[in-house]
Amino acid sequence: MDELQKALNDKSLTISTLPEKGRCLFTTRAFFPGEVIISENPYVCVPNKNKESPQSKCEWCFSSRNLKKCSACHVVWYCSSKCQKSDWKLHSVECRALSKIDKDRLKSLTPSIRLMVRLYIRRKLENEKIFPTTVMDNYKHVEPLVSHMSEVDEKQLVLYAQMANLVNLILQWPDSEVNIKEIAESFSKLACNAHTICDSELRPLGTGLYPVISIINHSCLPNSVLVFEGRLAVVRAMQHIPKGTEVLISYVEIAGSTITRQKALKEQYFFTCTCPRCMKLGQSDDIQESATLEGYRCKDSKCNGFLLRDSDNKGFICQQCGLLRDKEEIKNITNEVKLISEKASTSFSSGHKAEASVAYKMVEELQMKLYHPFSINLMRTRETLLKIFMELQEWKEALLYCRLTIPVYERVYPRCHPLLGLQYYMSGKLEWLLGETEAAVRSLTKALDILRITHGTLTPFMLELLSKLEEARAEASYMLHSQDED
Ligand SMILES: C[S@@+](CC[C@H](N)C(=O)[O-])C[C@H]1O[C@@H](n2cnc3c(N)ncnc32)[C@H](O)[C@@H]1O
């Protein structure tokens, strides 16, 4: 038995191989909800830097505070000398390579390129015995990761080859040490195996490769959840998992129709999901769910029926009241939504938040006419409005939009999903701020019930939630006593 399998045995886990899935991780004992199944440090990771997340972050811990640039390469940031020291073995080699590249080329230095540069440096340092290996931390576990290279389309292959060339130029190693084709294949591996590192509120911070956790397969009805405590990846059981069960997480956003989920899985991971939700594809309840989440609303604003395309292709028929919705009318509203959404998005990204809030409200109004009340598109617009009003510190409006999203979250996410827990948490915090103490106690309790399972109980994030709930409970009970005395 190999070392990794032995280490996994000690964690009550085992690796099996199934013809339709490849490697899978199975439990060898039962796990209770909230229990940590496996945790792993990244083999390599990098902070994200893009339009959505333009802030620089510490290379080691992803903090955005007290950052200082590496004085030699001027590319990498650290928040403390402790973080810089922890990263030094790897960065010292990377730093020399980055210092040599010219300014123009620096512009092409995306997080993916940096992740690959780091991967090859780590492998080299491991081979030279400068970087120690452990049972979990070993390039040996990167080798068997799936790449799906033969399924990648021509355009993507060209892109991988260009990226591999850039990595090669940065490393400037002899041909005996790197091979462009191999680097291109490693890019394909990263696309199917790397994970987005998020903070406790599931905001993306970076990308990391966790080769052992990468053995875990996908389900749209997962029994486990992957969260991060700093750079440590932690997989927790979301429900009771019996002995001999496959550990499954979700790779994609599961709020969506079966077709949408399957498309996302096929495009990035090259497989057709056969989870119990996907097996319902084409069945009447699956058709109803897709039409509700991604389809149009009934012409009669009081009717909550779902619509299906009519046989004459004139439009869509409400399956509850039989009213026809003309496709031209739908097309006109869709075009209007598209136009105003573009304006709204430009205002938001250029920092004109008040202007953006007005435009997004117009989008919301039109989408309410267009889509079913449980529409994902409408929910996304309301999430954006929530974000804008939070940034504008308009708490009442923020609470209104937070509350509007919750029924859709309750419908599209499993009972114990972290995003549902976080939405209850947001609602609780806003209610507490606005003096709606009893509502805050209810929301914070619901948040705690979910997040204690998905996030554990001991992290600073959870301790803060617990203390907020205690404060709200104390105030609610004080108010009750004061009323009694009156
Ligand atoms: C992160 S890897 C998971 C481990 C992989 N099975 C292996 O052998 O290394 C992702 C790949 O696993 C496969 N996979 C994951 N979930 C699957 C599922 N539910 N059904 C079929 N294949 C799946 C796909 O090939 C996917 O690209």
TrEMBL record:
Domain (SET): residue spans on this chain: 11-252
GO molecular function, one term: zinc ion binding
Domain MYND-type: 58-95
Keyword Zinc-finger: yes
Pfam families in the cross-refs: SET, zf-MYND
InterPro entries the UniProt entry points to: H3K4_H4K5_MeTrfase (IPR050869), SET_dom (IPR001214), SET_dom_sf (IPR046341), TPR-like_helical_dom_sf (IPR011990), Znf_MYND (IPR002893)
Protein's name in the database: Histone-lysine N-methyltransferase ASHR1 isoform X1
